[in-house]
Amino acid sequence: MKNYSRQREEILREIEKLYNHPTAEDIYMIVKGKDPAISRSTVYRNLNVLVEDGKINKISMQAGPDRYDLKRQPHNHIICTKCGKILDFDYNFELDNLKKILKEQTGIEISGEGIALEGICSDCKNLL
Amino acid sequence: MKNYSRQREEILREIEKLYNHPTAEDIYMIVKGKDPAISRSTVYRNLNVLVEDGKINKISMQAGPDRYDLKRQPHNHIICTKCGKILDFDYNFELDNLKKILKEQTGIEISGEGIALEGICSDCKNLL
DNA sequence: TATAAGTTAGGAATGATTCCTAATTTGTAG
DNA sequence: CTACAAATTAGGAATCATTCCTAACTTATA
Fold this sequence. Notes:
Two copies of one chain form a homodimer. By secondary structure, chain A is of the alpha+beta class. Chain A contains five helices and six strands; from the N terminus they run αααββββαββα. The first copy, chain A, folds into two domains: 64 residues, Arc Repressor Mutant, subunit A (Orthogonal Bundle), CATH 1.10.10; 52 residues, Dna Ligase, domain 1 (2-Layer Sandwich), CATH 3.30.1490.190. Chain A is 40% helix and 19% strand. In chain A, helix 1 crosses helix 3 and helix 2 crosses helix 3. The N and C termini of chain A lie far apart (51 Å). In chain A, 23% of the residues are buried. The first copy, chain A, binds a DNA duplex through helix 1 and helix 3.
């Protein structure tokens, strides 16, 4: 296992405490509270390293900045297209015939992770 | 039905001819070939209008610019995370218990559209 | 024909992210 | 320890996609 720099460790430790899909900016502000000298580019660069190392997930939004999530047990995300709220859900795609259909139609084998669905959440639906 | 401006019509007509999920820039270059005075902001603005009017879909990518697609029959997209290729597939989420599970766990009712999956396509898999 | 509403071209502004550079830290081999 | 290489940093400039701004122009309306 590769050694992590102090800054990289700090970033990972803060993400471990968070359960609200923080943005890079969120993480930057939190880490900066403890390590005022840290720079934004260090946060961005290390977030990419942590994604590559499989420690965290990057969630690409249809609008606004990317969000990050510690890899705990496998789960998926569903995003409200009105308010942008992200909710977790667990659904074992392995068991589903979706995988088979995709393989047949496109030749792509999905991993079951990195999947984002979209919809309108109940809060927003009530406002319509 | 609202009247569309000449530029808006031009943009929609070009998207009707394309089956390769063009970006706003792609569309801008094509329309500019026929109407050299058109501006980029006109293309962006009208793409948003066409999405709101339900004429086209916007596909948000995990990397790079958004892509657009005429709304023909309902279908979903799967994106290769290596090469960025976008493939269509049709899978009727209405028939699936995914919808039920999502409703139970998150309160969100998905529309069955605007869903993007990710994986690694067979071309890229061969290169690994 | 006058007025209002909608739309445009062009470019400036914005927001998120990456890139660049010189300085600093860390790892390693003698 | 010591010296050199490799990795990483802070800070800010640069980039990219997109939106915003404004004055001019079209189109609809009455």
